[in-house]
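Figure 2 data, in text form.
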Amino acid sequence: MSKNKRNGVQDLIGLERFTNYGVKTDKAEIVFFAVEPTNISVLSSANIEVKVHDLTTVLSMIPDLEIIAMDSAERFDGNKWYVKERLQKEENPAVRELLQADHDFLDEIQLEMSSARRFLFAVRFRREKPEQIFGIISQVQKNISEHGFTVKRMDKAEIKRMLALYFGASIIGDEIPDIEGENYIKEADTNEEKK
């Protein structure tokens, strides 16, 4: 490898660029579909069996379909552990009260976020042409939808949000810029123009 070539995070994880349909990696193009979760706690046993059967059917129709389950916001375990440790060691009653309030708040937020799961399907394309990819994407989305799942192909902004959560670049999935530091460059240019 030449000394001039710099390895950034993008290179290390194999991401090359966004495409019209998804993300291009060094090995494949990946298209992501967001699937609305079903609250099975309110379904009867028979309806749960139907949902499982529908999912099994989708997976048999699209054998290369990958399933991703993730939180839609960063987990709070580390923060809760830290506050709990501090709470055990703290002797000042006023500080203990504040730490307990923080711990309760984190519990409350985590409970709200626990129902905020994201379920994604992914399809990898290795040698297909763009027009083939479009046709396959349409068929995949149709097959998933016809089996009782609400599905949507993720756009660039949604994929960026998902990657930001996955790699810990954002706690709540804020939109990240296409270019690292882009906002600072714009601000510097604006300040320069004002002079």
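Caption note: Residues 75-115 form one domain.
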